[in-house]
Design a protein that fits this description.
Length: about 1900
Amino acid sequence: MGNSYAGQLKTTRFEEVLHNSIEASLRSNNLVPRPIFSQLYLEAEQQLSSLEAGSRADNEEEEEEEEEEEGSESSSPPVSYQVKPPPEGCCTTDGFCQAGKDLRLVSISNEHIEVPSGFLLVGAKSPNLPDHLLVCAVDKRFLPDDNGRNALLGFSGNCVGCGKKGFCYFTEFSNHINLKLTTQPKKQKHLKYYLVRNAQGALTKGSVICWKGAEFRGRQSSTSTCSSTLFQLPESSGLSGSTSSEPLPPANPSAPAGTQQTAAAVDHIPSTAAFSSAVYNGKESPKQQLMKNNLSALTRPSVLGTLTNSGPPKKRHKGWSPESPSSTETWNLQLNPQASNRIKNDGGSLSSLPHSALVGPVSSPMVGSGEPVSVPDNLLKICKAKPVIFKGHGNFPYLCGNINDVIVSPLLYTCYRNSQSLSRAYEQYGASTIQPISEEMQLLLTVYYLVQLAADQVPLIEDLEQIFMRSWRESHLSEIRQYQQAVPQAFPQVPSQITPVTSAQLPWLAGLAASSCNDSVHIIECSYSLAEGLSEMFKLLMEGKLIKTNYVVIICASRNRAIDSCIVITGKYQARVLSESMLSPSDYQKEVNYQLVTGKVETLGSFFSTLCPEGDIDLLLEKFYQENQGHISSSLSASVNKPTAVNGAGTAVCTSYEIERHQIRPFQLAVAQKLLSHICSIADSSTQNLDLGSFEKIDFLICVPPSEVTYQQTLFHLWHSGILLELGLEKEHLTKQRVEQYVMKLDAEAQIKFKIFLQNSMQNPHTLFVLIHDHAHWDLMSAMHSLYPQTELSTGLVDRLLNCREVKEAPNIVTLHVTSFPYALQTQHTHISPYNEIHWPSSYSNGVDLYHENKKYFGLSEFIDSTLSGHSIPLLRYDSSFEAMVMALGKRFPRLHSAVIRTFVLIQHYSAAMMAVCGLSQMKNYTSVETLEITQNLINSSRQCPSGHGLMVVLRIPSIPLAAVAYERLYNVRERLALEDNFEIILGNPNSGITIGKHFVEQLKIWQKIEDVDWRPQTYLELEGLPCILIFSGMDPQGESLPRSLRYCDLRLINSSSLVRTSLEQELGLAAYFVSSEIHTEKAVVNDVLESDPEKLSSTDNEDEEITTEGSTSEKRSPMKRERSCSHDSASSSLSSKASTFCTESSPPQALSNSTEETTNNYERQKQKVDKGAQTTISKHLPPVTEQLDMKQNIKSTQTSQCSMTKASKQPPIVFLPKLVYDIITSTDSSGLPKSSSLLPYHSVMWASSFRPLMSKMMTCTEQSLYYRQWTVPKPIHMDYNNRNEGRMDTFHPRRLLLSGPPQIGKTGAYLQFLSILSRMLIRLTEVDVYDEEEININTKEESDQYYHQPGDMWPDLESFKKMPFDYTIHDPKYEDASLICSKLQTRDSEDRSMSRRQEDMYTCRQTTRMRLSKYAAYNTYHHCEQCHQYMGFNPRYQIYESTLHAFAFSYSMLGEEIQLHFIIPKSKEHHFVFSQPGRQLESMRLPLVTDKSEDYIKSPTFTPTTGRHEHGLFNLYHAMDGASHLHVLVVKEYEMAIYKKYWPNHIMLVLPSIFNSAGVGAAHFLIKELSYHNLELERNRQEELGIKPQDIWPFIVISDDSCVMWNAVEVDCSGDRKSDYTWTERNVSLKQILQHIEATPNVTHYALIGMRKWSSKTNSAEIKEPFSCCHVHDFLMLNVDLTQNVQYNQNRFTCDDVDFNLRVHSAGLLICRFNHFNVMKKQIAIGGQRSFHIKSKVSDTPVSISPAQYICAPDSKHTFLAAPAQLLLEKYLQYHSHRFFPLSLKNYSHPVLSVDCYLNLGPQIAVCYVSSRPHSLNISSSGLTFSGLLLYLCDSFVVANFLKKFHFLKGATLCVICQDRNSLRQTVVRLELEDEWQFRLRDEFQTANAKEDRPLFFLTGRHI
């Protein structure tokens, strides 16, 4: 049995067959099961046509190996394997056999290898050489068939290196070829690939050897209307439904006798992709859901060994390369290896134009069965075209004989099969029970479709699919009505109630349908098999009886089995288009090159010379040149050069030439802002995929296709945008070399530049790198598919570079794909999230112009609109006379590719037109009217402008060799005609720059005012105004922009046989254009109408004539409108509209007949007809040259607006298309959607299902994107193919965006602008608005020459400081609206301090300045950087920080109850606290010692009270503290605890009791201080036990606002005179440095409060001359909780609580020190803080504005109560309306209001004088002061009657007593004996507007007696 199974009988293979046999017997009606052992051996399967086998993809080899190991060893334990030592002296090198011969494929691929009959070359994989295949010769009997079965057990092989034969054991063979295995050798594991020879004869890797096949069943014959489906995988299998399958037929021993089973057959394997287009997905097709798919495109020799035809092998077509990499993942075999030789499947673009919906994998549809059919000899010669046979239903017979002359395709078969599957979209709505459309109905509908096609139309698979879809829908409308709305009636009407069609009825019904089509469709019915029908069809073809027939439908239908059918395309035009459509773009190029190189085109040249009765055109040219050399050259050169001379003389010069400067249009700015908002939304998302806050600057790299012009164009845009200077990437003196660093051409050298880019991104983590992939639809080839030697180096580069792991994982690289055609990036497997797509905005919305542009964009839709009836003249046209000649020549030269024919015809037309314009009037017979118009306008354009400006004509020739031929020919004709100075001919090759003549370079330099001697144009945009023919070559445009002088875009030579939406739209995108909107477009179009006015004899020179009056405009336009609309749309007219206006006869020319002779004669007749009108045109149009010049001189002097270029820039160019493309572009469905939009979007994608809804014209760009994302899948050659994860969101790359917009609309400018505003935003993110206000009340300061310290002192001297007087005045600018505090010094100050700001202005109008954040700034929650990730607790490498909640209670006598606070302490911060050992109860917060000194430690705990600022509060002090260890506690309200904890998981929280939820900042300060003092006591007790004195415990805490952002230090230089001469500088320092400096102050514990100045840019020297002040401190202060034990914050206060506290501290005799050399910057934060308190009505929730006057009311009144704390209402009322209580005090600053024990803000127009009632307190001397009022606020027992009697009041002074309730109010009046001096009235009692349950405050006012 061979040793490959290690002698074990019970193998996996055996089990599998046994299992299958048992299962089959259980399912079968037949009692006798199939023999098991016959399945193990080479028994042939009969149902060849319907087997499907899944095999693995090349790129899944590893997975395959794992599976195979598991599978093959599942039933037995693994056998340990010992390698037998090799014989001594033999070679053991990997890749060589033991005889020392090289076996590696790369080494011997070109050597001749003898292969015995019955053996095949296969590739073995060695584990030590993963990148190499070893070549082996193996007996094919021991290899599996295409289903992974029927391989003989054992092995037989030969060594191809040394030639040793007869290896009978794979173990022995593996030793000989040095596989060096550590496991048991198995042929299944190591023999991987078949090897085949390519067109060059080199041996290359072929398909995977299919060792394990998918389950299958044969196609069962049935009389039912729907065919039975194959084995379907269960839904739960988890396989991606969109993977396609690779159908492969098994070997068939019943092949015709005489089949040669020799190795020679290997050389003639068909490239099976010949008949395939993209695979239609198996997702919706039960037949297609196979396990894996194979990506290879090479057939299996094991199959063909038995299937080759009996004749000698035919010569392979030169254009075919069977070894090319696959573009589709499908094998569609037929038995004619040569029939498809010229077609292969490279590059992924097999779209038959007809069926741009590339359809897919076929279940061996081409495998023949039954008797063979012989293809007759000379078929091509007789028929003038190769018939294309579309396999339909059932079995297909063998073809033998002259099979080179037919082409077989599976497209229709696949369409039929896919249309019998139901989309999952319908299944989920319960539609899965509906029967699919029957085979009979499919065929009948196909006949209906073919019948209604016109003679010049080609069938489209999409059309057929939609017909099937609609038919199925209408027959089951009730079941699916709830799912989808009706499909527009875009196809031939089908009866809505479709009755089932039987097999017997089918031929009759088909014949009936075809009877009405004038024999265009011929039906052949056969009774036995398709073979007889095909034979009859060939016979009819040879007899010439099908000359009028385009389609032959062959039907074989019988009652007892399913139908067989095929459709043969016999129409010459249709067959040519269909056969050419099967060529991939690379094959197309090879075919054209081959025909040029082999000289096959010479027959065309000789044919053209016979057309010209005067002889060869070249002889005519030579003769003309000799005769006219002197005259023409001088006169023509004069016509061009004269303007230059004239310019010097000061005569008229064309003033219309102006180069457009770089400017951003409103559209571009809008798009840039949309891009920015998408970037911000990525950054704002919770995924943290982009941390914008961590980036300081922008860098970028723009990737462009390898077109030199596009590269230079991008450099040009970049240079003129100024973006490099703006981003700070380059300095002022920018050089070209520096700019080139930022643009990368995707060519062979790209990898070096890209490597530098990646290195920069790694080295600069704080720079955001934007990788811009411009023209992103170009080269989406998978890198794995570009490793074949014959592909271009640049292929797959995008995948290799932009999709590399480094780019995907780099957190600082954002990729932006920019394209006009995004469809290929919008598949089911795309990397780009639909939320990251940015589409160019529409200019109109509901008729409103959204962006005021001074230019109107003309794109595809505008061009299509111009062809509609009612428009003046079509901008899209086709040349019917050109098409007629091409069609005639196509029939005459059937072996030439139509691209070659079209190019040669067009070159002939241009040559003849140039000759005709130059006076050889007889040549106008040999050109078309359209070409003549183009040439005339081109040659005359430069003569119409005084400066010589002219038009550009773009001649698009995709094939580079054909473009070179055209260039050479036209160049030669121009030379002979002496036109070399009249216009330039430029060969635009994507791989090289622009070359133009010296004369034209000089002209451009003059026009553009360029003085550089070496300047040459490098972009097409720089050719502005140059009269020229630009021959634009290259398979696809690569983003090149064309200048405004473009007038004609000649696309007649584009590859019209292989069209997909992207190809079509990008060709038309060349003509996209901006038209100046000042010129009414209708008027501009009218100018064109005139050129076809018969009265002017089509004088095309006059096309741009000035319009004099509007009246004449409309008169001339209306008849032409009608003529246009009926002529240019007419498909039956063989001449275009332009030609019809030339005809003098009214009847249109007859349609061309089929015979070559008739066609040629007819063509000449047409030309003669045209001649009658055109001859006079030419002769009248071309007077003698001298006369022309005289005319021009006159025109110049009067009118300079004749410049053709100027007019060209005011109207869009005219585009000429092939007729086929024109029809597709201009035909629309009923919704108005152009047919081109519903084509397959891109070569390398395929439709997910043929059962998909129609696109609609109403779809937005976003909806189109979602449509493609749902209904397209990438082919294996597409770079996104492997990016699939069953539809989960994680397949999207988070930092990848897609910008799409129409071609030439300004996307480059938009993304450059985006870089600019992104950079500005990053700078903005690193900047903050800080308050920048001068200190207030400076003029009230003491003007004293006494200074207590020197300017350079670092710390205050305690004794000196004690002598400093306290400055009562508030200087903080935030208290500009507060009452002035009077001291003895300001008693006589009567300055009018009127209110400078209204209430609502308090925050909005404060002055701010933008400041760049320093490295010592405090940050909010949006800041993330590597350094502080751990500090913040967000680093994914660390666990989310766990926190524990701890209660902490202490009693406070003033509140009369125990206070219970809660600490939330993260695990990482527990070391700051002391816990009791048994219960882990919180005991205290650790405090350091006064004597402790450490550079990395801050001794003072920092408390930050905060509310409403969980996101914006500046709590990240990591950078501010410079990484130093510190204790930071956030003080939050209970209801905000959870949200703060979420945003700041690694911060300690102090949670206030719930009773303080509505309290102000005073409560937080109060509790912080009391808690801190209580903790100080606890720590003293705890550390006293450790021997530490109580006074040694550090008593300070820091209380900081949540908006302190940066800190500065002033450095004073006192190098001069100590008293007066000093200089100072301010610099940003860390908070750590400031706190450590203050903590190191000598005798620091003697100070009660220490603070610092608030920063201001206007600080002057006087303010810092005294380094320390004794005054108020705010915002950021150090509080000595020990000294201030008996001074409390007022827990009720909302505003000014710090001023109130400062006054209490000072009156208690304690020291307050402000360090003037330090200052704090406060950030403006617009939310939270005080603004979080909203005063609203308690009754209604509707927000009503409530004025402060309503904050108080009379007691017991029916006033509206307010939902706000009483204290807040009191403070706000007093701030704005205190003058009602103290009328005498208003602006009376010399008589302030006496305020006892508190400071309340009474507004800026009232001054207050603060006194303390405490014994021994420090108060100002009140002797001689008379007060205008008295304010008693919640006074305590220290306030007594005698204390008040010491003060004197003005007569009529007012009193205001404020108490908690009315009872307290009365008691206070009695206790203080107030009625002795003050008069009270009942109506003078008030309360805050609170409900009783909200405990209002009560007021009593009185007057001094």
